[in-house]
Amino acid sequence: MFGTDTLRTFAFGIVAACLAAMPAAAAIEEIRLPPSRQHGLDMIVVDEDALPAEPELATTPADAQVETFGAAAVDPAAPVHRLYGDLRHQLDRYRERWGGLPQLRIGGEGAAIGAGASDPRLGVLRQRLGLARQGSFDKALRARLVEFQKAHGLAPDGRAGAETIAALNLGAAHYERLIQLNMERARRLPAADSGKYLLVDAGAARLWMYEDGKPVDSMKVVVGAPATETPMLAAMIRYLSVNPYWNVPPELVQSLIARRVLEQGLGYLSERRYQVFDGWGEDAALVDPATVDWAAVASGEKELRVRQLPGGGNSMGGVKFMMPNHYGIYLHDTPNKTLFGEAERWVSNGCVRVEDARRLANWLHGELPAAASPDVEERVDLARPVPVYITYFTVEADAKTLAFRKDRYERDAAVLARFPADDRRMVDPDEQFRQAMTLGG
Once rounded to an integer, what is the mean pLDDT over residues 382-393? Predict the structure, then answer.
């Protein structure tokens, strides 16, 4: 576990390194994501006012801190986030339910094992799930499969297909380590008495509004696609940008806008209220789109700043929730509400689109302010800035349930590789039999 001083040094070191490599003008909107896979455990602290206190670590001498995870807090009475307590409780329950079963590897290949199957793997499957080896694919086996599938984030079809067998073959120790990893992510969050803050879980594509350690409201969000991950950040929402412009990321200007202009003509820009500028600075001048070599923009030879005016189909919707940072990450409204009805909400360029911007603005500011002009962006400062913690959980837990999620950003393996593995191994019963026959011969 890293100590508080270590986390501060690590986090601000990353920020400093990234800033040194970036042009100052990029802070307006260009998105350059930090290497999330290299630090899928800790949040990057981009605003020191948002740094959560870690009393159970701060009291530990630096030379006594060990790089490990999953252990109880140094001081059991120290305040921790409620998610940490839920995960700790569910880790114990997981060990009771799944850790004591025979850790047998199911070998061989074949079609999914289901009702009526006479598969040579059936006996090992039954034994792996705690049933007698001898027997058919009966109701008891199907019930155990459904229970395992629900607990491990699999489709509960009651059949042992390739995905289910692969999960069974990972073994209980693997899943215990995943719970422990997520416990450590939870330990980085504010303790129970930390007032008002926002929690965004990119692993669930959802946000929660917390007051005095308890969630008081929640809504769906759309977060970064696997190619443009939403990073783990600790920041402060300091103001609302009402009637916002949208500064289009350069990669989208190249891959989308330039190509559409070449296909549809300059009317594509005027119909969607796009403007073209000669730079990213505040004094950048407007450029006549007719003078632009759009083929060079589409090929990547030339880079342009393109901005969409407020209103209508502006991709930012009616408001942005600004947490100043040099990664161009913020929360914002969106005119496309259909995505919130979808299960797959990992499609953005890294920013966080919120389901109900007005409700969030009411919670942050008491209202969603109206701009003086429909065509001009307006800044509205919050009376009291609110911390926002963007984290990433691949295990969901509460006081009663536990569920594993898909690791959409593939961060878990890189983190687990940095820590010692459990000594327990899966046993291959067929290999044991072959070895016994060899010794007997």
Answer: 96
Strands (E), 98-232: 196-201, 206-211, 214-224
Both ends of the chain: CA-CA distance in Å?
50
Residue showing tokens 């305040």: 79
Which residues in 21-50 are b (16+ Cβ under 10 Å) and which e? Answer: eeeeebbebbbebbebeebbbbbbbbbeeb
Instruction: Please say if the pLDDT value at position 310 is more than 70.
Output: yes
Distance CA 22, CA 320 (A): 23
Q: For residue 125, give Cα distances in angstroms to 98, 115, 315.
A: 14, 13, 50
Nearest to 172 by CA among 106, 89, 95: 95
Cα gap 27→354, rounded to integer Å: 22
| Phi and psi, residue 257, nearest 5° | -65, -50
**Mean pLDDT highest for which of 8-12, 53-57, 197-201?**
197-201
In the block, tokens 């946000």 appear at 207
At 396, which amino acid appears? E
Q: Which residues pair with 285 in a beta bridge?
A: none
Dist CA 247 CA 241 (whole Å)? 13
The SS3 of residue 217 is strand
Tokens 């986390």 sit at which residue?
A: 7
DSSP labels, 230-294: PP-EEEEEEEEEES--EEE-HHHIIIIIHHHHHHH-THHHHHTTEEEES-SSTTPPB--GGGS-H
Which residue blocks in 152-286 are alpha helix, DSSP H?
Answer: 162-170, 172-187, 250-252, 258-264, 267-271
Token output for 217: 């409201």
Tell me the pLDDT tens digit for each residue of 104-143: 999 988 899 999 888 999 999 999 999 999 999 999 999 9
Question: Are 221 and 345 contacting, i.e. CB atoms less than 8 angstroms apart?
Answer: yes
Which residues on neighbouring strands pair with residue 305, listed in sequence order?
277
pLDDT at 58 over 80: no
For residues 330 and 210, give the distance between their C-alpha atoms in angstroms, rounded to a whole number: 18
What CA–CA distance (Å, rounded) separates 205 from 220? 6
Estimate the crossing angle of helix 139-151 against helix 162-170, to 10 degrees: 70
d(CA 427, CA 34): 40
| Residue length of the chain | 441
